[in-house]
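Bit of a strange request maybe. I'm writing a small parser for structure token strings and I need a real example to test against, not something I typed by hand. Could someone generate the tokens for this chain?
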Amino acid sequence: MRKYKIGLVITGISLMSCNSQIEKVDPLKVVTPKMVEEQESLCHSTYKIKQFETDITAYLDTTSVEEVKNQIKTNYEFYLNNKADIIDNFTAADKDENNHFKSLTKSYLPDEERFNTRENVFEKLVNNNHLSFRDSINKGVYFNQYFENNKSSIRAVTRYNGAAVFRYTENSSYRPYYPINFDSEEDLTIMDIFYYDGTQDNNAVAVDVHAFPLNAIPIETIKPIDSFKIEIKLKYLAKIDSVHFNKDEIGVQKGNIKLLKMEDNYVEYELPSDYYPYHKGTVLEEIFFNKEGNVLDTEFGISNCGNETPKESYVEYLELKKEIYEYVYNAHNYEDLFITLKYMDLKFKNQDDRSRKVNKNVLKGNVDSFTLYLENRRDTLTLLPTLKNIEPIKNVYVHELNDKTDFIDKKGKVIKSFPSEVSFIYNSKTQNYSDKYFYVKTEDYDRNIYYFLNQDNQWITELPYSRIDYVSPSIFTARLKNEEGLKLISTEKNQLLSEETFTNFIALRYTDDLLVTNDAGTFAIYDQDDKLVTLQTKQVKTITFKKSED
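Reply from user aminoacidic:
Good idea to test on real output. This should exercise your parser:
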């Protein structure tokens, strides 16, 4: 099947009118639950099954039974009555693709070729990274808990971008670079949840594999969590195979892979559909060589291209549309339509997964041979780490809802509610948010409404400021409403550090010393220990000023 075929059978509906050539439908042609179960058992991805269900439900929730039938009938009639146009479209798409590759195909002079570093691919793919991941996880993983729409959002305290690890605090999680062997899938289950109030939940809950540690884990609770135990199953790559083709082996098939073309800087080979998830025979690495054995850099490549002719594709499409129409024709209600569309989606995907595809590559040099490294086997390493909340129990939490923001106590009782989103003051230098000062946005940035959250007393106080900005870990500047000038306030308490008003403040370029100015002159800032206050000063309880010398 060609790569640009539809995924969901209900998409691509054409609403063109045409003369019907549809034959009478057999009334016994209906989808049964057993037929759906058979297709589910053949599907390689449980994620795709859930995705189909979600998409179909969303479609049926906004479309009546009759509308669904009419749309699918119209779609079938369009394919039935527009054969020539559809084949022409397929032909044009193939021509565009072929022309693009022809435009990139050329013969290189020796000094024009570009190379990659030669690697030991076996060691790159099969190694002990899963053990490094195990060791780092067992050292302890920490998380922050946020409350959103009556659920907890659990976010690991880590930042991993595939190339480096950043530690936010001394207790932050650590995930080593490329921690698990090539594209390992993480099968996650929360086993036990321990709450700060001493209770616990022992009901196992499966977690989306993409949620840890980069994305949030959702948990159905708004109780403060102390820690939870999670089961992680790493399906790491344990064995790989390789297959090598030379330029004189055009038309040769080795295992499931057949070489179709190799000329100048272009290679084309056929293989089974590379569906997700990874499986035995999946191509993990492609290494292309020139005749001197140097590894060539890649200019362009696409995979999983269809290998049918336009006429063959049309026949496949038409049979699919016909079968969908006939099954839907005999569906009478929402439930019938749901299992019918699910069955057809699964059947289409299963057929596509078991078809053969073509991979095409253009190299930055004359290719003489290439090696494919294929998955053979994955083993499973099971871990049972306990994730710990990085923050102690608090008296007040923020609960974000779709249309408002609630401040709640540790038992979930609402202390104060705002009919909008609130934003805590952000420090772009440390990438941290204040946990005490926040504001409600208005259309005019300089008229935002600022508040101070007192955790100890569970108070929220509106502040007389029109704008607050970060200066240092201990100091904010604040502009009083309807007044000119800046005040210096504490980042930890709802407290003025000085009664003085200033027109500006600056930080010296090489020392980071802070200076403030007003009509009386320019002044350096000193803390309670009579030390100069800089951008890095963390503990400032009181301040004094000394006039700066010119």
